[in-house]
Amino acid sequence: MALNRSKSEAMFERAKKTIAGGVASSMRAFDKPFFVERGEGSRIWDVDGNEYIDYVMAYAPLVLGHAPKVVNDAIREQLDKGLIHGTGCELECELAEEIVKHVPCADQVRFGMSGSETIHMTLRLARAHTGRNKVIKFEGNFHGTIADIYLSVTPQIPFGPDHRPWTKRQVTGQLPSVEEDVVILPYNDLDPVEDVLKAQAHEIAAIILEPVANYNGIQPPAPGFLEGLRKLTEQYGVLLIFDEVVTGFRMAPGGAQEYYGVVPDLFVSAKGVGCGVPMAVFGGRNEVMKTIADGTMPHYGTYNANALCLAGSLAGIRELTKDDGAAIKHLHKVGRSLRLGLNGLFEKYDAPFYAQGVDPFFAVVGQEKQDTRTYRDTLTRDYDTARLFRDAMFDRGVWSIFRGNFVLSVAHTDEDVKQTLKIAEEVLQSEKY
Ligand SMILES: Cc1ncc(COP(=O)(O)O)c(C=O)c1O
């Protein structure tokens, strides 16, 4: 019952002639050729006229859904006043004030364009502020593709002992030296963190983590993990950095730090903070941000806080946070009913899948029906069979990320959830897994 995607296929052949691999981001190479005509709310239409319920949401920035009116109107209004001016404007004060109001750890912020770049800046800031070189990163966590932290995201055997994984470059082309200053530890396990801090805290600038690990099938923090990290970093004088690229303005108006009630020293937010425009922000306590403010560690960027992105981002954030975060509450509600609904169907049809994660984003993976805690726990998953389920849904008009992730938006409705579950049931009835 595959959809006709002949125009997409022809466009892919055309793209391959002038775009390396036919895709603009290597992530997209894992999907079937799929060229889009337009998106609106929770839906997307391809060039062949097929309509999909979209759970990719452009890999998560579209927290308000496609083409949100408030964001589009703000961008339209800004267009005639100029896209970028190379100096300050009131919009940037307003956006910074909004962010500081909502994000618990943020006394001050700086703006950038992407998660990768602002993570890179935050790590440099942590090193500059503490005068130490090393950082602790967790195996399986993803912090973007800049070389000095693009390490041990999906490492393959041999990868060292469970309690003290080796540091492994993620892709070819990274210098071997990037491995020297990053200590890799298992996610959701405090003992190895304490061991390393006891032995070498004097060399460690920061611990960086995703408060909800999103790359390898959505692992929420184990009870006490975030609190334990906060306690240990305070005890040993090491900075704690939350990578809230995915969780920011999604788990709660103040991100995962508000949702879980654990306040780091520094944070990075991207994706949700832009609601589709390329906007990223990093920031934290005054004492640390002073290292930028006083010029000790400069932070540059031609496109930082350009007026067009400021306008879109500010409108988006105001929409997300107004009425005590009503939009985000809705996002949680629809996400939860989809996740629980899918798990109910997997039980009913005895299908070897499990929807694991948090309410606004989760992953359908091939594993036992219980949460995994670490990256290594995920290695026994059956990704191939889960992919068959995902592709069968895609061929019936439900688009999710090829690795099984579902990303909800404020634009998703109860009706979308109902329709998705109906399609999932049809798939489970007609296919054998
Ligand atoms: C947790 C996390 N950090 C950082 C990044 C990198 O962000 P960007 O793609 O904007 O560079 C991503 C991207 O998916 C992410 O999921």
Given this structure, which CATH class of the largest domain is correct?
Alpha Beta
Task: Specify the CATH homologous superfamily of the largest domain.
Answer: Type I PLP-dependent aspartate aminotransferase-like (Major domain)
Give the strand order, joined by hyphens, for the main sheet. 4-10-9-8-7-5-6
What is the SS-derived class?
alpha/beta
If you average the pLDDT, what whole number results? Answer: 97
The tally of domains stands at 2
Shape: globular
CATH architecture of the largest domain: 3-Layer(aba) Sandwich
Bound molecules: pyridoxal-5'-phosphate
Quick rundown:
The chain has helices spanning 6-18, 69-79, 90-102, 115-130, 190-200, 225-236, 255-260, 286-293, 307-348, 383-394, 414-430; strands at residues 36-40, 43-46, 51-54, 108-112, 134-138, 182-185, 204-209, 239-244, 266-269, 280-284, 354-357, 361-365, 398-399, 405-407. By secondary structure, it is an alpha/beta fold.
Describe the protein.
The chain has 433 residues and is an alpha/beta fold. It is built from 11 helices and 14 strands. Helices cover 37% and strands 14% of the residues. The chain has a 7-stranded mixed sheet, sandwiched between helices. A 4-stranded mixed sheet has the order 1-2-3-13. A 3-stranded antiparallel sheet has the order 11-12-14. Helix 4 (115-130) crosses helix 8, helix 5 (190-200) runs parallel beside helix 6 (225-236) and helix 9 (307-348) crosses helix 11.
